[in-house]
Amino acid sequence: xxxxxxxxxxxxxxxxxxxxxxxxxxxxxxxxxxxxxxxxxxxxxxxxxxxxxxxxxxxxxxxxxxxxxxxxxxxxxxxxxxxxxxxxxxxxxxxxxxxxxxxxxxxxxxxxxxxxxxxxxxxxxxxxxxxxxxxxxxxxxxxxxxxxxxxxxxxxxxxxxxxxxxxxxxxxxxxxxxxxxxxxxxxxxxxxxxxxxxxxxxxxxxxxxxxxxxxxxxxxxxxxxxxxxxxxxxxxxxxxxxxxxxxxxxxxxxxxxxxxxxxxxxxxxxxxxxxxxxxxxxxxxxxxxxxxxxxxxxxxxxxxxxxxxxxxxxxxxxxxxxxxxxxxxxxxxxxxxxxxxxxx
Length: 344
Description:
Elements: H1 4-8, H2 24-27, E1 32-33, E2 43-45, H3 46-49, H4 54-70, E3 73-77, H5 83-97, H6 101-105, E4 116-120, E5 134-141, H7 153-178, H8 185-189, E6 197-204, E7 216-219, E8 225-230, E9 236-240, E10 243-246, E11 254-258, H9 260-265, E12 275-277, E13 285-292, E14 299-300, H10 304-310, E15 319-320, H11 321-330, H12 337-341
Parallel strand pairs: 1-10, 2-3
Antiparallel strand pairs: 3-11, 4-5, 5-6, 6-13, 7-12, 8-11, 8-13, 9-10, 9-12, 14-15
């Protein structure tokens, strides 16, 4: 299947092929609203999380817990990742998508757990309707992989992902404490030293009929935390209090969302949030998501400490992260369908 970039660049393209056409109820464009400024996505100041002041740290941990409970999305500022490195990584991803079709085919990959895989849509082998999206997925930890093109991609992505891992681990310490657990609880329980980290670059070219197409359908993310940046073009929407809301990313910040495995570990106290990507007819949107998860062999289940303290029954059955990943990646992407399979 040819990439969407090539299709979008076809001379004289004025309509999309029917295989990219979502029905209106799947698309549900009308229900989008802007976020009320009084009820906006929480902002977490990372510098306070690493502060030597116990009061500042305690306050930001409370804010982090509230953000995970009420939104499942938050913006992280003052995160110590150099802006120049963020720009270079975004540029490297754009240069990857600008490779020829033939060059990109070298990295096509066959299996969902192949360490380097590029393609289009989500899982074109099972989908009836395709998404207006090309992607590159690379496993960057515990073993670092990288395509050998374009020049410099490997060195830049190695440094970037290392920096992101440091930010994610500090956030997870704060989330641990916000749940009333030891700060290193998630780190130990999820075997983060061997945790799976995946770089996912997404390209959404201009679409002649954006009201009919979808960049990515409604879904939640597997794993613990995803840190996202984009090239200044908006297109991300999240489901908040039953409404789709547009998300604007603050420059030089990360948009962070909690994944399915935070929901499982917290026994549903913190929820993974359904979100989607819409497309436009003018500009190419590039987003870069770094997914941070447990080790592939970790069986993720609700925290026994939380369950005992709150006298609750487990709301999810334990499942090995690798098995969860294969379930999600081998099927159609559909809201929280895989997480629903492990609910008790």
